[in-house]
Amino acid sequence: MSLIKHAKTYLLNQSNYKHLNAFNSLVEPSVLLARSGISESDRAEEIGSNDVYDKPIAIKDNICTKDLKTTASSGILKDFVSPYDATVVKLLQDDGAVVVGKTNMDEFGMGSHSTHSHFGPVKLQRYEGEEVSAGGSSGGSALAVATSQCWAALGTDTGGSVRLPAAYTGIVGFKPSYGLLSRWGVIAYANSLDTVGILGKNVKDVEAIFDKLNVYDPQDPTSLPRSTRARLLDPHPKRPDSLRIGIPLDYNIDTLHPTVRKSWIRRLRELWNRGHTLHPVRLPTTQQALSAYYVLAPAEASSNLAKYDGVRFGSRAEGIDGAPGRVLFAKTRGQGFGPEVQRRILLGAFSLSAQAIDNYFIQAQKIRRLVQHDFNGVFARPNPLFDHDGTTSSKKRKGVDILVCPTAPSLPPSLSEVETQDPIHSYMNDVFTVPASLAGLPAISVPSGESHDLPSGTSCNSVGIQIIGQYGDDKLVLDAAKNL
């Protein structure tokens, strides 16, 4: 699907689905129409085998673009225009991709339903007369892809913010291994967890974008250097016909929705029938992963967001800001940040305080290391970041190639239900996505491939199946997703 043939279709969809609030800003229609008017002969040499050339791509609104505002869906950044493009945006544009707009999201990426936005919630219309959560925080990107308002989209995934929206909207969402895709130009939420992710309607499209963006960026201190990337190359590129697939028993929780459990079992049965072998595995520490995540991520956020005070960065509140005895920018931050961001800043500030840091932040870091140890213990391939000297990798290991589990424990809730949920209940949506984020592993959510009856009498494909691989096994995860 190229921009040449479908520019008017994309523009029509953007107009028809405006009420879904997937975009915060869009390029001028004249820009798309002008580009689509270029003759085939003028661009034939440029296209070649380029998979992303001329493709309309949406960008999450916390990824910097110099031609469109970058607000992170926050009131404190509502007027911010970046002087440069993020590396991932520049790479796509250099290959001829067309940025069509910036997508709505949870403010600064903090949320699971894309409802905590200065511009209003993203609305997925699924039930008759009822609006449903599109997932978060990359809900705008996911919904833009699902409704064909763009060909593919970039999001960010800190604890599941690409995979959860992909599951809720019935598309593909991929979180690569931490450090493979540049974060330069991405507004930070939690530096040690933030990962640029990709959303598309199929795995092939997602992989095409991943191949373009999987390069070293010297501007990003978290980007894996070339020497480390060389260790990630698979010395045995020929994949076995039969994969050893791990079933994490710790993900079979009591609150797992029956429809989700049924889809999970059905997909495992299909893989078994295709000749793959199934192996139950235990990941005991992942049961504490969610608690650890909601200590570590807010702690990093409270530090990262300290600069948005209206003095160094961000919009400043009108009038006198700073009554006698109060912080100079108290009014600015109080008005600029939404309630969820304020909540997480307070959580993070508390866990980093002198009296709490040992009991919360330090303990959470220990849990994070144990989660990583659990994953390393079940995968057949050693973690290349720890076993590059050959001492462990030379030994024969019995383990699995990938893990297959649900992306979310439930079907997408209605927005009215989300509004009445307490924060703890909302955080539970990330229970299956957070462990891979803590360990920095590649993970992808693919649609279950079947329709499910919903209470209203309609049906939808809103169950996501998640595939998790060892660090650096991104290609294996993508290959397995194609088969699934």
UniProtKB/TrEMBL annotation:
Q: What is its main location?
A: mitochondrion
Catalytic residues as annotated in Swiss-Prot or TrEMBL: K60, S137, S161
Asked if the record carries the keyword Hydrolase, the reply is no
User: Molecular function terms in GO for this entry?
Assistant: ATP binding; glutaminyl-tRNA synthase (glutamine-hydrolyzing) activity
| A GO-annotated cellular component | mitochondrion
Keyword Protein biosynthesis carried by entry: yes
Q: Which Pfam families match?
A: Amidase (PF01425)
User: Which cellular compartments is it found in?
Assistant: Mitochondrion
The EC number(s) given in the record are 6.3.5.7
Task: Please give the InterPro entries that the UniProt record associates with this protein.
Answer: Amidase, Amidase_dom, AS_sf, GatA
Q: What class of enzyme is it?
A: ligase
In the record, the note on similarity to other proteins reads: Belongs to the amidase family. GatA subfamily.
Record's subunit section: Subunit of the heterotrimeric GatCAB amidotransferase (AdT) complex, composed of A, B and C subunits.
Q: Which NCBIfam families match?
A: gatA
| Function text | Allows the formation of correctly charged Gln-tRNA(Gln) through the transamidation of misacylated Glu-tRNA(Gln) in the mitochondria. The reaction takes place in the presence of glutamine and ATP through an activated gamma-phospho-Glu-tRNA(Gln).
The identity of this protein, by name, is Glutamyl-tRNA(Gln) amidotransferase subunit A, mitochondrial
